[in-house]
Write a structure and sequence with these properties.
Number of helices: 15
Strand content: 15-25%
Bound molecules: pyridoxal-5'-phosphate
Number of strands: 13
Distance between the termini: 48 Å
Length: 399
């Protein structure tokens, strides 16, 4: 034991020295525009609860009802006896929402990515990722054993070069089935707030006979007429093989989802190990997610989205007035580049002292030396909240 703890202590000390140590903060309040930490109420600009649904009465009520009716836990995996009515209702609602034949839910978005990518790809298949995709997709890539290439962020020329590489590899393979080429990207990038050029991407992958998986973690609920995501907004629903979503961000609950063809979903039920070998999500989470989708699809959902976009514009103005470069984003995620990890930590600490909670995002979430403050807004923020943020930023710049 002494050697064990001594070795871990060395590793932790190195993280601290590099300004990369992460520590949990105990939040004493529900999700919202205020976060209570250590008895102090801070203005919260760090949540992914973009539409303010995580603490919405309709979602809480649905969670409570489901717990009363179906219990606190599902009791087993979906394929044993855990496939409850609430899970099926959520999947039917999701498929309709995403305009897909079928949908499958997982306990987390992370598990959805792992399950889907490893179910579809094997050694000998080709996987091509945008440089900035989420860690869960990188983990899935490693686990799948597929041959991997990374294209420069949102760079279609570089993607085309990688697709040409894949076509060459493919013709060399003589397995039981033709080798597959899968491209994975996000629609709204989680740490940069920029959008993927999905229309051009779809044309390119069709030209090369590749498949496309789009992670809509930060777009679900925010884009498109039905508010199902950027795939819908760009009119690409029938042309994207695999749509991925999380239910823990704008949807306000928890879980991950894959939607697409009936065959895709049937295959995942048989092959996605993070689905098969895992207890079904708790009934309360599934019911809350269904209620979240209902709110999103209602006129209230549209009103919340409109409010959110107004607040995004206001936040951009606040940041410009605080002498930060104009953000080129079309999402409720606004990164402010800090460079060195230590600088990001100091700035976040100063903001906390001034009553504002914004996370310093550091390696390995982003590249080394590309640390940033990541501001997010929610439809529940008010103009007064943004004025308070402006004041806090002014105090730091001047002090
Ligand atoms: C949050 C996130 C995930 C993981 O979803 P969880 O439900 O939180 O596990 C996947 N992809 C992206 C881009 C994310 O931001």
């Amino acid at each position: 034991m002494t050697d064990f703890n001594a070795q871990l202590a060395v590793e932790l000390a190195a993280l601290r020295k590099a300004d990369l140590l992460r520590e949990l903060r105990r939040v004493e309040s529900p999700a919202g525009t205020r976060a209570c930490l250590g008895g102090r109420e801070l203005l919260n600009f760090s949540s992914n609860d973009y539409l303010g649904l995580a603490n919405h009465p309709a979602l809480k009520e649905a969670a409570v009802c489901a717990a009363k009716k179906f219990g606190a836990g599902a009791g087993a995996s979906r394929l044993v006896c855990g496939s409850l009515t609430v899970h099926h209702q959520l999947e039917e609602a999701l498929a309709a929402f995403k305009g897909a034949e079928a949908a499958l839910t997982f306990s987390t978005g992370h598990a959805a990515a792992l399950g889907a990518i490893t179910a579809l790809l094997d050694k000998g298949d080709l996987l091509i990722l945008d440089k900035l995709v989420h860690a869960c997709i990188v983990d899935a890539a490693k686990l799948s054993g597929a041959k991997l290439r990374v294209f420069r962020h949102n760079d279609l020329n570089d993607l085309e070069a990688k697709l040409k590489w894949a076509a060459k590899q493919r013709s060399a393979v003589s397995g039981q089935r033709p080798a597959r080429t899968l491209i994975v990207t996000e629609s709204v990038f989680s740490m940069d707030g920029d959008l993927a050029p999905l229309r051009d991407l779809v044309e390119l992958k069709e030209r090369f006979g590749a498949w496309l998986m789009v992670d809509e973690a930060h777009a679900t609920g925010l884009f498109g007429k039905r508010r199902s995501g950027l795939v819908e907004e760009f009119g690409l629903t029938g042309r994207v093989e695999i749509q991925m979503a999380t239910l823990g961000k704008a949807v306000g609950a928890a879980g991950g989802a894959i939607s697409g063809s009936r065959n895709l979903i049937d295959l995942l039920v048989n092959r996605a190990r993070s689905f098969i070998f895992s207890t079904a999500p708790v009934p309360a989470a599934a019911a809350a997610a269904s209620a979240g989708l209902k709110v999103i699809e209602s006129s209230e959902g549209e009103a919340r989205r409109e409010r959110l976009w107004l607040l995004v514009e206001q936040l951009k103005r606040v940041l410009i007035e605080a002498s930060f470069p104009p953000p080129a984003v079309r999402a409720p995620i606004i990164p402010v580049a800090m460079g060195a990890e230590a600088r990001a930590m100091r700035f976040a600490e100063a903001l906390r002292k001034a009553g504002v909670f914004v996370p310093a995002i550091r390696y390995p979430t982003v590249a080394r030396g590309a640390a940033r403050l990541r501001f997010t807004v929610s439809a529940e923020h008010t103009a007064e909240d943004l004025a308070a943020l402006a004041k806090a930023l002014g105090g730091i710049a001047n002090g």
